[in-house]
UniProtKB/TrEMBL annotation:
It is found in: Cell membrane; Membrane. Belongs to the 4-toluene sulfonate uptake permease (TSUP) (TC 2.A.102) family. Keywords: Cell membrane, Membrane, Transmembrane, Transmembrane helix. It comes from Streptosporangium lutulentum. It is a multi-pass membrane protein. The chain crosses the membrane at residues 72-92, 98-116, 180-198, 204-225, 232-250, 262-281. InterPro entries: TM_pro_TauE-like, TSUP/Inactive_protease-like. This is Probable membrane transporter protein. It comes from the Bacteria.
Amino acid sequence: MRALIILGLVGFAAQLVDGSLGMAYGVTSTTLLLAVGTNPAAASATVHLAEIGTTLASGISHWRFDNIDWKVVAKIGIPGAVGAFAGATFLSSLSTEVAAPIMSIILLALGIYVLVRFTAFGLPRGNLGKPLRKRFLGPLGLVAGFVDATGGGGWGPVGTPAILASGRLAPRKVIGSIDASEFLVAIAASIGFLVGIGSQNIDFAWVAVLLLGGVIAAPIAAWLVRHIPPRILGSAVGGVIILTNVRTLLRSDLIGASGGVQTAAYITIVVIWVAAIAYSLREYRRDRDNESVEAIEAPENGQVAEGVAGTPR
């Protein structure tokens, strides 16, 4: 019973982060399942089965808060489902030990870009509103879906930073669209796992409690993402991406850093991350105050100008 309660809390926390930042449900939940000895295919299958419910709840919640661009969902979700099914089907015969560090380097670069861009400059507005092309979203969805199924998580960490970096969609729309499209990915991956390994290695009680925790958190997360300022949200997402992928790289055979080096790196990243969020918060408040002053002064200036124009010389 204690283990089920802990799993439920993990599902709640994971969905709260995933629904507000567009990533981390699969990574968080799968990490816990692997830590207690679940084999990789069964762990990923368990998480994806739970995600069918959590992503549906999350998608509905984001829809109610107008956080979704349905064109983006269609363009990235269908290729993502294809990639997820392929990844799930071949997981048992596929080694991701070589691919993981390479993917982490790419994601780390995107994370640094997102963190610096949003912290230093705020929401990119030069491309905001421009359409996201199918030739960009299609391959992105295919890769993200494949990584998600084979790694037990990755749809958000691959898709969210790539779309955020384009600057063509507001952060809350990026997160809502990624979460909604993940429903298709979760279904496809689950079918692939059921075909590949069957259901005998899946603990459906674990699926249920992960699902319950995620469903409870979904509407809270959708509300949070609508009310967190984009600049601050971008800095927060960038930090998550950097921390997650530095951790993967330091633990990989490519680097194999010692425990002390890992701890020092994590502390340094967290300090920089917290400072970036604090800076973004300060700049957001300053911009908001400036806009308020301009809004107040604009009518007053108009009245003065009108009075001067109407005054006889």
